[in-house]
């Protein structure tokens, strides 16, 4: 398959790799931020209780 | 984001970009001769992304099985977390192998799927690891979830060498290309360089994802601990 026919597949491969990896990074970062917020508020609650 | 995972992710992304440059502008094109006509096989460029993704998935799935075995041997919770994080990151790359593989199959063989040994065994691997997540989500009790998950991660990791060998047994009539053999790599210097740069970049990026996932698991464990402290107090 020459360039004319093959390029959509080659670009598709490259874009799909980056799309999946970036979505995973964003999901992980969002979850980490939420968990750290919860961790912070729980730590304060534990401190208040002594 | 932790500093270590940020550095690894940045280094990985830079190497992956360098890999793209090397693959498209430095590595020579693969040319096939058909009826006195020379045809440039542009779809071969997929090799520089598909194979590193596949090798990375294998590395993390094997690590998942190893950490699972270490958990079963020591019962240390940290090994179970490491196993789970490695399997999850490995599975992301498994999905990428399926996506990129299907596109390459269409571009190179003009079909979307071929029931040949390497593709079939990799499909079995994908289904087994899908089962790993179903199993974990179906068990409520934490210690049982960890134990079953660890056992399953070891069993599923056996698929990695099976998939690897299936594409090399001539008796199974594989049509999947074999680039690396015991005689060495069937690639020229610039092609090998492009491949190695992409491979190393992919491994670094995957390691940064693994660190992030492990951080998340550990932070969740801390939350459970603090909740228990509050309830006891």
TrEMBL record, chain B:
Pfam families linked to this entry:
Cytochrom_C_asm
**Major localization listed first in the record, in broad terms:** membrane
Domain Cytochrome c assembly protein per the UniProt entry, residue ranges:
13-164
Q: Where are the transmembrane segments?
A: 46-72, 84-105, 117-135, 147-169, 189-211
Q: Which GO terms describe its molecular function?
A: heme binding; heme transmembrane transporter activity
Per the record, its GO cellular-component terms are: plasma membrane
Tell me the keywords, alphabetical order. Answer: Cytochrome c-type biogenesis, Membrane, Transmembrane, Transmembrane helix
Membrane topology annotation: Multi-pass membrane protein
- Keyword Transmembrane helix in the entry? The reply is yes
Would you kindly state one Gene Ontology biological process term found in this protein's UniProt entry? cytochrome complex assembly
Q: Where in the cell is it found?
A: Membrane
Keyword Glycoprotein carried by entry: no
Would you identify the family this protein belongs to, as annotated? Belongs to the CcmC/CycZ/HelC family.
Name of the protein described by the UniProt record: Heme exporter protein C
Lineage start: Bacteria, Bacillati, Actinomycetota, Candidatus Aquicultoria, Candidatus Aquicultorales
């Amino acid at each position: 398959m020459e360039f004319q026919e093959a390029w959509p597949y080659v670009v598709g491969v490259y874009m799909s790799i980056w799309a999946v990896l970036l979505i995973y990074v964003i999901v992980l970062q969002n979850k980490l931020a939420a968990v750290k917020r919860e961790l912070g508020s729980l730590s304060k609650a534990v401190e208040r209780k002594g | 984001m932790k500093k270590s995972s940020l550095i690894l992710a940045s280094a990985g992304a830079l190497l992956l970009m360098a890999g793209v440059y090397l693959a498209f502008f430095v590595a020579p094109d693969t040319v096939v001769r058909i009826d006195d006509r020379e045809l440039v096989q542009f779809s071969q460029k997929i090799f520089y992304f598909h194979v590193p993704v596949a090798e990375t998935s294998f590395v993390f799935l094997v690590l998942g099985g190893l950490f699972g075995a270490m958990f079963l041997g020591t019962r240390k919770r940290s090994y179970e977390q490491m196993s789970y994080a490695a399997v999850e990151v490995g599975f992301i790359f498994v999905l990428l192998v399926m996506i990129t593989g299907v596109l390459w199959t269409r571009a190179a063989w003009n079909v979307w799927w071929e029931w040949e040994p390497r593709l079939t065994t990799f499909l079995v691997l994908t289904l087994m690891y899908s089962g790993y997540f179903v199993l974990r989500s179906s068990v409520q009790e934490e210690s049982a979830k960890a134990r079953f998950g660890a056992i399953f991660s070891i069993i599923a990791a056996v698929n990695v060498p099976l998939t690897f060998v299936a594409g090399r047994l001539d008796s199974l009539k594989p049509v999947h290309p074999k680039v690396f053999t015991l005689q060495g790599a069937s690639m020229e210097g610039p092609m090998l360089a492009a491949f190695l740069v992409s491979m190393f970049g992919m491994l670094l990026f995957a390691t940064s994802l693994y660190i992030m996932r492990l951080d998340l698991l550990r932070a969740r464990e801390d939350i459970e601990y603090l909740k228990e402290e509050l309830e006891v107090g």
